[in-house]
Amino acid sequence: MTIALSRNILTNRTEIARPGEPVSGILTIACPDKIGVIARVTSFLFRYNANIIDTNQHNNAERGTFYMRVKFDLSGIELSRTDFAAAFSSIARDYDMQWQIFYSDKPASVAVLVSRQDHCLYDLLLRQKSGELNAGIVLIISNSDALRPVARSFDIPFYYLPVSSANRESQEAQVIELLTRYRVDLTILARYMQVLSPAFFQHYTGPIINIHHSFLPAFVGNQPYHQAYRRGVKMIGSTSHYVTEELDQGPIIAQDVYQVSHRDSIKDLIRKGRDLERVVLARAVRAHLEHRVVTCANRTIVFE
Amino acid sequence: MTIALSRNILTNRTEIARPGEPVSGILTIACPDKIGVIARVTSFLFRYNANIIDTNQHNNAERGTFYMRVKFDLSGIELSRTDFAAAFSSIARDYDMQWQIFYSDKPASVAVLVSRQDHCLYDLLLRQKSGELNAGIVLIISNSDALRPVARSFDIPFYYLPVSSANRESQEAQVIELLTRYRVDLTILARYMQVLSPAFFQHYTGPIINIHHSFLPAFVGNQPYHQAYRRGVKMIGSTSHYVTEELDQGPIIAQDVYQVSHRDSIKDLIRKGRDLERVVLARAVRAHLEHRVVTCANRTIVFE
Amino acid sequence: MTIALSRNILTNRTEIARPGEPVSGILTIACPDKIGVIARVTSFLFRYNANIIDTNQHNNAERGTFYMRVKFDLSGIELSRTDFAAAFSSIARDYDMQWQIFYSDKPASVAVLVSRQDHCLYDLLLRQKSGELNAGIVLIISNSDALRPVARSFDIPFYYLPVSSANRESQEAQVIELLTRYRVDLTILARYMQVLSPAFFQHYTGPIINIHHSFLPAFVGNQPYHQAYRRGVKMIGSTSHYVTEELDQGPIIAQDVYQVSHRDSIKDLIRKGRDLERVVLARAVRAHLEHRVVTCANRTIVFE
Amino acid sequence: MTIALSRNILTNRTEIARPGEPVSGILTIACPDKIGVIARVTSFLFRYNANIIDTNQHNNAERGTFYMRVKFDLSGIELSRTDFAAAFSSIARDYDMQWQIFYSDKPASVAVLVSRQDHCLYDLLLRQKSGELNAGIVLIISNSDALRPVARSFDIPFYYLPVSSANRESQEAQVIELLTRYRVDLTILARYMQVLSPAFFQHYTGPIINIHHSFLPAFVGNQPYHQAYRRGVKMIGSTSHYVTEELDQGPIIAQDVYQVSHRDSIKDLIRKGRDLERVVLARAVRAHLEHRVVTCANRTIVFE
Fold it and tell me: Is residue A49 part of a domain?
């Protein structure tokens, strides 16, 4: 959870009016656990006539850290967006808070990285189109040219950046340049079959969500369905997690499984897995975009 | 949600100290939706130095009603149990609240009604024994004598009250007399194969949870597994709900399903269903005992 | 299960060679239950050197009917497709069988009927494209023009046939004319928001699979998600079934459910339901296309 | 799958007549894959007037091995149990089969090994009592005396055999002596918190089923719920598998999972896990007792 500066980028975006949905603010807070936080925050919102729609909180006792998310209606609020930070700063200081505020009419910009498989990409594109994700998919990057037609049919810029061990550094620099230029808020690895190098993470710190086609921590790395077949498991899984430098070790956001049997060949596992991957990735992405995910050491809090 | 009087019964109970678990209070509130409720309630608790462990709220927009549950630590609180109501009354009045307070060291008294099937009864007894339910099972009532040995092996009073169309009225009066005498907080119909008459509900208003062996509203009434078999469904279900005068129409608390196939005979459905019934009933009972269930018209809010 | 004549239509189709997959035959049988059927059928295949890949059978004791499906390798078989019927006829006669034979290199022709919602249509198109369905989607029919662009992007003929109570008879005649002209083997109602009239079923007898957005038999008819919301269920479901004259009463092929809570609005149920509908419909369609589904009165046998 | 000798032990058992259930035979076969096996086996049964109730087969292409299970009605059979082996031997020789035959009126004898946790033990005892398992639980062995009262209340012999690193060898010898003396067909480790030593497996070769409280291969070894909590998974699992010398690496028979969240403490995972453990273990045990499980290298075939 980084500090509130990042929201300034968002305020320059074109506003999207979702007809029928009132505009709401989402305030996320992390601070040392101390009595009275909820009372202070909710009293602050009450003072400015902001009706609370939803609040979630979690106290991580081991770390002594308190996490809170408050969603409130902006329709009657007596505090402008520009004045919010100044008004809230004394509370933030008193409680040593890290905080951010988001507005539902400023949807996030999303980049999708893919290779040759299209099922997760199609799924994200269709969910965006149907209004399930409060986000715009602003570009697609791939190390293969195979999915260019999909990008074109949805009118999304497509960048073909082939990669090999020889050019990895420069390719990743191009990826970062694109993410920066498009002011990307969230990067999704939708079956992008490349491991990002440690260097990448030194130069890029924005959130990245991956879909791994196993029930982590089982079957880390390559060909998890082959590994699953060989071990003879009776369920296959999918895991969506934040990407960190260590392969398949980042904080898990969502997981699900599907029953399999001895009748299923590796090909069947791959086919059945596609349905899982789509649903699990979408669930994680949606939670992130609604600011319901907080990372706490290597675990996530996913507010409902 | 009834008003706070009912809690007085609880305060007379023997206190149970769960070793290692700090004692907590749970405050449940229902009131017309109005801005500022959360701020007022949490500020009240803060003033008396009650650290909030968890809060849940839900706003039913259709009915304009706001529901809230706050769990707080009693260890540092500067307000005695006896003074709580007086201190809280001005807030309650301002917001026209219905409210109740519960203390984790006052476990509920539970009655279980059964017929001849033992799987749900055993399940509840074992869960209580293992400490899963913050409750005491204080009596078992049955219209059959078959499960008396089970009751005996767990040292629970067992009442055999046979019933027929001829004696229904007097049998139900005996049931009510027992529930009252044992100061029962929750009655569980654990595969009790009798329909309670309208008269029963005129004379008894305490909460009753039933397990119905179908995915309601499908297969209301008798022999739901037979009905399910005949319709050729591919999943069977179980539903735990509050009992109301209208058969199988009460507010649903928990549901779950299990996959079946053409290979399953009615006997197989019954066998598979037993596993579902146990788990679904226990989930509903646990939610109720933790004061996480609120009834709102014919729907329930089940806080997590 | 109709008799073997229908396969003649298939033999005129262009053969599809699935690279890497050996061609197989699938023989489906229904007959009065009598000892020795399996021995006779498998000995017949053995005599002609057909290696059995898989067999399934089911004996419906109530009806005294035996159902069997045998999949066998065609690579070493010493019996031509044209001679199969003559060779098998004496067994078929002895056991009073209804039977059909299918070949994996003769994929079925599928028609999809839609209205305005695109998620099931996209799902079927993408599954076909990825080779999950051994079928060709040969035409799309709609009572709305909204999804024409989707059809175009997949190069599938699209027929816009608006319908009202005034023109229902002639519109349905046009639908039947198209299904006949395209020699359609399977018709899929992929959220086609029209009820087919009794007259339709008098003139068309080919198999039709529908996806109903509830856990049947709960919430038959209109707006099942609204019905589910009002009843306060804790899970929503989807049901894929063969369409018969009686609305939502046909034999069920596949069902699944998804957990919901009091937090979910009707809009949320609709969104979550889309994921269910896609998966459940695809599962039913795939089972049908692999000749794993047998209808037995109003129930289905779905071989695995 | 071992050869047919072991069945001789069974034939000496007291026959159990399950009222209403006709007696059936179950023939299990493993042999090199060769055309015509099914025809030969089913024709053999037909010749002796044995009506086939169910057949399952699986061809493991990688190993070139064919597995078959045939369940047939004994009511009209014209071949005595004692003559079966002689009559079947020529087929068995021709196809180089390993085979076994079981009779439904000869239920298996089961030993349960436990430590201090009672939930799996109770579950097995109750399932046996309700007739779900075609088996008799003939003894309970424990390294703790805690569950003796449970054994007593179900009238099952209970052996308390404490174990430490010092006496492991002699304790395991006693366990083997008991399993042999009671002619145990299946040993169940129902949360037996001891690892059997390599020496044990040298002296005992009967089947042993364990329940491991994780989704294997994730979280092998000690305290899997603690491991799961630390990794921050969003589902916990249970795995039932045959025990081999290598800890938690044996062939998996059944697995299932349960959703968890950041709200769940380790204590909650343990509580939720108990429900999983019971169901998954019972599913595996039932499959084994119905002779539906075949081990093939380190994977299982579980016929439905």
Answer: yes
